Amino acid sequence: MKTRREFMQTALKAAVVAAATPPLLSEAACAPAVSLKSITAAQDLNFVQAPLPYAYAALEPAIDAMTMEIHYSRHHSAYVKNVNDAIAAEGIAYSTEAEFFANTSKLSTKARNNGGGAWNHNFFWMVMKPGGGGAPSGKVADALNGAFGSIEKFKEQFTAAAMGRFGSGWAWLVLDNGKLKIGSTPNQDNPLMDISELKGAPVLALDVWEHAYYLKYQNKRNEYVANWWSVVNWDEVGKKLV
Ligand code: MN3
Question: N or C terminus of the chain: which is more exposed, having fewer CB within 10 Å?
Answer without folding.
Answer: N
